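Q: I'm building a small set of examples for a reading group on sequence design. Run inverse folding on the following structure and report the sequence directly after it, with nothing in between.
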């Protein structure tokens, strides 16, 4: 999101580094989080199989690498009123953020899942939908499943295997019990996020006026492999 990238650039321009502010800005933006994990996996030894805290990754990477990451990131359209794609991406980002925070809270119920693992699992749970939101052209292979395509990207980016499995979205193809547990946890968190969004929308006079009556509908389930 443009605001997240701008906030990151402002924080990096300060004379005194605000590590907490940098970590909060990155971890609450889907794109910046993916970029950080990609950079860590290819540039920091031992980071391709671990799900570390964002603050730890920033320290390990160093500010020069974080600045380089910020420079190569491209913000989405700055004209949300005239760009339906931007609006769709914005809703996707917000739902992913909410799912991540719910998953982080639910992690307290699992002894073998860390809060950071749960957070990223929630943040990336629906990442397979990102090609649609960004308007990528799949005309050449209309039957190809998006989950498999984005899973291949996650593998090429050397993201931690447990997160790649969550992005893939197929429980029977998960490579470890932890992957299955994280996928299940993220699914529950996403459902709760939709419920919270519905409740917030129901209380909004603006939304009620524009969409009477406001009816809650769950999103379509992930497609299973044939």
């Amino acid at each position: 999101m443009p605001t997240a990238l701008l906030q990151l650039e402002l924080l990096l321009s300060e004379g005194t580094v605000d590590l907490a502010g940098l970590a909060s800005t990155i971890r609450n933006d889907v794109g910046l989080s993916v970029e950080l994990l990609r950079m860590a996996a290819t540039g920091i030894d031992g980071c391709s199989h671990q799900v570390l805290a964002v603050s730890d990754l920033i320290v390990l990477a160093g500010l020069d690498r974080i600045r380089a990451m910020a420079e190569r990131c491209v913000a989405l359209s700055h004209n949300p009123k005239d760009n339906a794609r931007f609006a769709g991406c914005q809703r996707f980002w917000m739902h992913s953020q909410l799912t991540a925070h719910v998953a982080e809270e639910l992690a307290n119920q699992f002894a073998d899942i860390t809060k950071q693992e749960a957070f990223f699992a929630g943040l990336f749970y629906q990442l397979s939908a990102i090609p649609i939101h960004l308007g990528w052209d799949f005309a050449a292979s209309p039957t190809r499943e998006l989950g498999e395509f984005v899973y291949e990207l996650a593998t090429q980016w050397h993201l931690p295997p447990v997160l790649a499995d969550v992005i893939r979205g197929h429980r029977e193809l998960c490579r470890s019990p932890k992957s299955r547990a994280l996928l299940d946890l993220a699914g529950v968190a996403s459902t709760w996020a939709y419920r919270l969004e519905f409740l917030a929308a129901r209380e909004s006079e603006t939304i009620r006026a524009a969409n009477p009556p406001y009816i809650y509908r769950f999103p379509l389930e992930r497609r299973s492999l044939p």
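Residues 80-210 form one domain.
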